[in-house]
Amino acid sequence: MADRLLEAPTGREGIDLAATARPDLIILDLGLPDLAGLDVCREIRSWSRAPIVVLSARHSDAEKVQLLNAGADDYVTKPFSTSEFVARVGALLRRARLPAAEDVPTIVEAYGLTIDLVHRRIRNTSSMASFACRARAEDPNGPR
Predict the structure, then answer these.
(1) Chain-centre distance of CA 111, in angstroms?
(2) 99 versus 80: which is more confidently predicted?
(3) Would you list the DSSP string of 10-64?
(4) pLDDT digit string (tens) for 97-110?
């Protein structure tokens, strides 16, 4: 599927478009004629997991914090580096494609094994033998 860019000239239209088109990422410019960007961000975040990147010419730390606390995933001030912006968007899209924690099963059963991902235990269901996986201290990524 090809990437598409959808634009909305107002906050209300942006909310409606986000609800109907279900975009992979939302770029929210704070210069909206009808609604405060903070309100648009809160509204979309209340029902969408799509990453929200705020663009603004405003440099106020308080406003950045307010928008990030309202659900924005990133805040980029104008003028900005195009290459940095593309990298930030790419990072957010990579993370957004990962399954949410609640979408990942905690128990997996396959090939006669029951794997408890939370407690890091594997049980052979054909016998009662049970063992726990232990990460080696020198490997922060866990067992291989």
Answers:
(1) 33
(2) 80
(3) SHHHHHHHHHHH--S-EEEES--SSS-HHHHHHHHHTT--S-EEEEES---HHHH
(4) 877 666 667 788 88
